Amino acid sequence: MLCKEKTDLTPGDIKKIKAVAKELLEKLLSAKNQLQYLRDRAALQAQMRTEIFDYLFDQLPEGAYGQDEILGRSQRVFEHFYRRQIDGQTVH
How many beta carbons lie within 10 A of that of residue 81, not counting itself? Predict the structure, then answer.
């Protein structure tokens, strides 16, 4: 999801992005006690969106993405995670 549509990434960038994605998923899943409220609490959704953006902004390879790209991709990550959690599916 983070590497799609990016043709100018180096193999090192791709490796780093995959590691960042894995770490982000672990971070999001570690808040299990809050995930049950994700559907009903707009503040929790906003907090999660912000955490995803901040994490990607800080961790993605420098120069690989602009701020607008990170914002768009963080929104896609949130939507994917949200849909999976609401549907009770395993997130990957």
Answer: 19
| Cα four-point dihedral sign 17, 79, 47, 30 | negative
Q: What are the φ and ψ backbone dihedral angles of 61, each rounded to 5 degrees?
A: -55, 135
Give the up-direction half-sphere exposure of residue 42: CA atoms within 13 A in the CB hemisphere.
0
Half-sphere exposure of residue 40: CA atoms within 13 angstroms, side-chain side: 4
pLDDT of 54-92, one tens digit each? Answer: 999 999 998 889 999 999 999 999 998 888 876 765 555
- Whether the pTM exceeds 0.90: the reply is no
Give the pair of three-digit tokens for residue 31.
């808040």
Other beta carbons less than 10 A from residue 78's beta carbon: 20
